[in-house]
Write a structure and sequence with these properties.
MetI-like fold; mainly alpha
Length: 279
């Protein structure tokens, strides 16, 4: 076996430092969340226990942890569904060139380059001037869509750019209507990409801070609640909250990946069964 070049070890060390820099703060918070009952916010740890996780489920002197979690969860689901639906519709619409399609494309993805705090300020002012209450489910919902929709649209544009129209032509030759073609041919083929867009939409919404800062009204989402707690909570309970929210995010990602795996297995099984039937 030939020895590896020195550049390999340099790149490996660089990658290891990058991973440590990326996940080091999260790992640190996870460790400190297991402080003993008399532990503080810094090292060294004063014992090891699950005390601060238990404290999360008690009445807190400050903050509305579970109310904000519920709002973030509902808002994430709203944004996820809307992002998937609009992204698919946009991807289908942009398969053919039409007047103003270029300008509309750049307008649709402009939310990626505009500073998030300016989007939050603009959306909040618009709703206030229009006489619509500033609320996490209205203005907060709209502000977050300016962040999630560009990602969803870019994914769908790429998917439909490589989509083989022969599948649709075959379905129409068999007498399928346009809606039946979309439902039974197009959507099953692009389903893994739809799961990716859904995951993007939910996680970007669930973690969003800046675009929700001035658009959530009097009720905070979870990121805003955690930020508020950093100014008045002096116990590791905030670390326990951070650990649980991180675990929740990984669970959501795992569920999406598991769903994609199950769908791919089912598709492969159906494909092999159809091949055997033809033989």
């Amino acid at each position: 076996m030939e020895p590896r070049p020195r550049s390999f070890y340099i790149l490996a060390a660089f990658f290891g430092l990058y991973v440590l820099f990326l996940y080091g703060p999260t790992i640190t918070i996870g460790i400190l969340s297991f402080q003993g009952p008399s532990g503080g916010l810094t090292f060294p740890m004063n014992g090891v226990s699950l005390n601060w996780f238990h404290e999360l489920f008690k009445q807190q002197a400050v903050g509305d942890i579970w109310g904000s979690f519920s709002r973030s969860l509902r808002l994430g689901l709203m944004v996820m569904v809307t992002t998937v639906v609009v992204s698919v519709m946009g991807g289908l619409a942009f398969r053919k060139r039409f007047a103003g399609s270029g300008a509309l494309f750049y307008l649709a993805i402009a939310g990626l380059v505009i500073p998030s705090i300016l989007v939050s300020l603009g959306v909040g002012l618009f709703f206030s001037q229009a006489g619509i209450p500033v609320h996490w489910a209205t203005s907060g919902f709209g502000a977050q869509l300016t962040w999630t929709l560009p990602f969803g649209l870019l994914v769908m544009f790429a998917v439909f750019n490589r989509f083989n129209p022969a599948y649709e032509e075959a379905a129409r030759d068999q007498g399928a209507s346009p809606w039946q073609t979309v439902r039974h041919v197009v959507l099953p083929i692009i389903l893994p990409s739809l799961l990716g867009v859904a995951l993007f939409g939910f996680t970007l919404s669930y973690d969003e801070f800046a675009r929700t800062l001035l658009t959530s009204g009097s009720k905070n989402t979870l990121p805003l609640e955690i930020y508020g707690m950093t100014t008045n909570v002096t116990t590791p309970v905030i670390f326990a909250l951070g650990t649980l929210t991180t675990v929740f995010s990984f669970v959501i990602i795992g569920l999406f990946l598991l769903t994609a795996w199950v769908l791919n297995r089912r598709r492969s099984r159906h494909g092999s069964d159809a091949g055997k039937g033809m033989v």
